[in-house]
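Sample pair:
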Amino acid sequence: MREAKKSYFKNESNIWEITVEQDIDDITPDMFEWWMNNINTSERYKLWHPENHKTFEWTIHPSIAPGGIGSVHRVEEWFGVETPALYISWADPSEHETHFTHQLVCPSWFAGMIPPKSYKESGCTIEWEKNELGIHMKTVYYLPADFLPEEAAKGLAQHDNEEMQNLPKFLPELYKKEKLGK
């Protein structure tokens, strides 16, 4: 597994900012974007991280959300501590300025939380672009420190590194078969 550059700190708003930056071999920008909109089932979600991903379901599918904006999925996963189900939404990418060629802006919230007004209250940005290996990716998570202990912030950084580095094991073949019909 290629090790990512990982960091986390608690900002002045009592929000964990967790940054993971890494290169992922043999994945194209379009391939990753396709994956994020076509996970679709718990079985597929478990391909991404067989040990830590438990369940996946769309509550608002991207096909009925204009450009995917406003779609929401619910996941259960493990990243060092037990957490409630997590709801992840796609927001308008213009909310976040980037120099990368591709990005997702994802407000998210745990069951029992009020959905955030901004991804910087609870959520993440995922930015990626082509490089000589496949893609270079930077993910920044923003999670309320009142809700998650430091162990979870550290665990999420490691979890992200593991799931992204697992993509080359299954995604190129899946993309080729389902998206390209080969």
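The first strand starts at residue 5 and ends at 10.
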